[in-house]
Design goal:
The C terminus of chain A is likely disordered. Helices cover 70% and strands 1% of the residues of chain A. Chain A starts with a helix and ends in a 6-residue tail after the last helix. Chain B has a single domain, classed as P-loop containing nucleotide triphosphate hydrolases (Rossmann fold), CATH 3.40.50.300. The model of chain B has no long low-confidence stretch (mean pLDDT 91). The chains are: A mainly alpha (337), B alpha/beta (240). At the A-B interface, helix 1, helix 8 and helix 9 of A face helix 2, helix 3 and helix 4 of B.
């Protein structure tokens, strides 16, 4: 028995699959090299949207997938990030590279302020409360003159491409790399989180809060921590998106669709798994874009019907998300029966 | 040394007194068995001691520290572990991960927490199943999982709610042996049991509850002879 224990202790902490690592590294190199192959503007935009939505979904994955709290108002943090960067740049000339962090900070503050009362609610009630909070942000910003009210903020354009102002008018390639780097950093950070003590404890809170309490875990605090981390991941995407389109208005950045799409991507990709949002975004964003291109002109919302149909098929045949197509032994620790 | 003192603990739900003026003391290193018919207030007493339910009145002292009114996580942090009547494993995580979550209380380092969790899993004889998801385990194995998880926080006092409940006859002796093995480690145990023979075998003292009231407290031999306990719970056949 002793020898079995020694054997168990000598096992590596993680089931590191060299094949998976090689594939991931290969894909990362490919992503960095892609623009060199002369991708046109549409494909660059498509990849930028995939990176952005993968990060946004990863943000939602932290609060919903890791700690089990379904937030339906996550778009609020996207909007806060977008407004923080644009407002500080337009009013004080502060570079987005700094104001991105300010947006993260403000989002974190709001996550605490919202989280303390709201995370006492459980299940559907938390979801409904966050939905209403998300909508209320849109309503407030529509009436707030300081930030342009309903017309929003039109970011002052630089005459030339500028890394300091994070504005590129001649090509989308710099944006591609900025979004790619944020995507990789976020993925790596969430991957580390999932393997950390905090990650374990968040999953305990998700699986059974009562049992978690018996293991010295302050469930309320951990939910708030997850909410704050999630908000801090979401905000930079709002900031970068604002720099990408250079227009920030309440209907665009506080749109309820943002909160819904991150949910869809995560659930269909595979909730609670760091790969889920990436898989979800890589498949759903192109489907969304292509169905809009090929069917959007029909005038009968055929593109949306087609998009909805695909989502339904995935839900019916792959209820655990698209990640369930990947063999389990690649993603899970090996079982020794 | 007294590890736990419960004084006049009461809790009502609507008009029903689930626990009515319960008082007892427990010495360190002992096993206290709690018996009583269904609805006697046994699990409520566990919830009151561990902070899951707020008591209306009374005092709970753990090593002379008043823990009355503290939240469950704070109470567990002081060294009070528990298992649940209705099992609460982290179903989508492996046995090892379940126990590691407990081990993180004492070990900050992941490797050390993993190794400590493995030792505890070995202690409960489930080493072979360490990589199985909790939802894949049998009821008996899940009972061991809960014990292992509670042990991982290195409790001084462990409350176990119906360890042998809902498992088949073959599994029971192994679980009873495990409780005895656990006692040898020095941990003080309170266990709720319906199987009176097990209670008599493992307990140093027994607390009998009926309709929320404490009707007897004493050694297993004393309890077996107590008329009130015989009338309300044991019946003439078991008491013979």
């Amino acid at each position: 028995m002793e020898s079995k224990l020694i054997t168990a202790k000598s096992e590596p902490l993680w089931n590191t699959n060299n094949k998976v690592i090689s594939i991931v590294f290969g894909l990362v190199i490919l992503l960095f090299a892609l623009p060199l192959f002369g991708l046109n503007s549409f494909y660059l935009h498509l990849f930028i949207m995939i990176f952005m939505h993968a990060v946004m979904a990863q943000s939602w994955n932290v609060i919903a997938g890791f700690s089990g709290q379904i937030s339906l108002g996550h778009g609020a943090f996207f909007g806060i990030g977008a407004y923080a960067t644009s407002f500080l740049y337009m009013q004080y000339g502060i570079t987005p590279w700094i104001s991105i962090f300010f947006g993260m900070f403000i989002s974190a503050i709001f996550a605490v302020l919202i989280g303390i009362p709201m995370l006492r609610l459980s299940g559907h009630y938390f979801a409904i409360a966050t939905l209403l909070i998300g909508i209320s942000f849109q309503v407030v910003f529509q009436r707030w003159d300081l930030v342009g009210a309903a017309s929003g903020l039109w970011v002052t354009m630089t005459p030339e491409d500028s890394w300091i102002a994070l504005q590129f008018h001649s090509s989308k390639i710099p944006y591609y790399y900025v979004f790619l780097i944020f995507f990789l950093i976020t993925f790596f950070a969430v991957w580390l989180l999932s393997r950390s003590k905090l990650g374990y404890r968040l999953r305990a809170v998700r699986d059974d809060p009562q049992a978690a309490l018996s293991l010295c875990i302050n469930v309320s605090n951990y939910k708030i921590i997850a909410y704050v981390i999630s908000a801090m991941i979401m905000a930079p995407m709002g900031s970068l998106f604002a720099q990408y389109i250079l227009i920030v208005d309440p209907d665009r950045v506080f749109n309820i669709e943002i909160s819904i799409i991150v949910l869809l991507i995560t659930v269909l990709g595979g909730i609670g798994n760091v790969w889920g949002p990436i898989i979800g975004a890589s498949i759903l964003i192109p489907i969304s874009e292509y169905s809009r291109i090929y069917l959007g002109g029909t005038g009968g919302a055929v593109d949306l019907i087609f998009y909805g149909l695909i989502l339904m098929i995935i839900c019916i045949f792959r209820p655990n998300g698209l990640i369930s197509f990947i063999p389990k032994d690649i993603l899970e620790r090996k079982k020794q029966r | 040394m007294k590890i736990l003192s419960v004084e006049n603990l009461s809790r009502s739900f609507g008009g029903i007194k689930a626990n009515d003026n319960i008082s007892f003391e427990l010495d360190e290193g002992n096993i206290l068995g709690i018996i009583g018919p269904n609805g006697a207030g046994k699990s409520t007493l566990f919830d009151l001691i561990t902070g899951y339910t707020k008591a209306d009145t009374g005092k709970v002292k753990f090593f002379e520290k008043n823990i009355f009114g503290l939240s469950p996580d704070k109470i567990s942090n002081l060294g009070v572990g528990r298992t649940f009547q209705k099992l609460k494993p982290f179903a989508d995580q492996t046995l090892l991960e379940n126990v590691m979550i407990g081990a993180f209380v004492k070990e900050k380092n992941i490797k050390k927490a993993r190794d400590r969790a493995l030792e505890i899993i070995d202690f409960v004889d489930l080493l072979e199943k360490r990589h199985h998801f909790a939802k894949e385990l049998s009821t008996g194995q899940r009972k061991r999982l809960e014990m292992a998880r509670a042990m991982a926080i290195e409790p001084k006092l462990l409350l176990m709610d119906e360890v042998t409940g809902g498992v088949d006859q073959k599994t029971i002796p192994g679980l009873v042996d495990l409780i005895k093995k656990l006692k040898k480690t020095g941990v003080t145990i309170i266990t709720i049991e319906h199987n009176i023979n097990i209670i008599m075998e493992i307990s140093d003292n027994v607390l009998a509850l009926d309709q929320g009231k404490s009707i007897a407290f004493g050694s297993p031999r004393e309890i077996q002879k107590n008329k009130q306990v015989i009338d309300s719970y044991l019946g003439t056949f078991d008491a013979a």
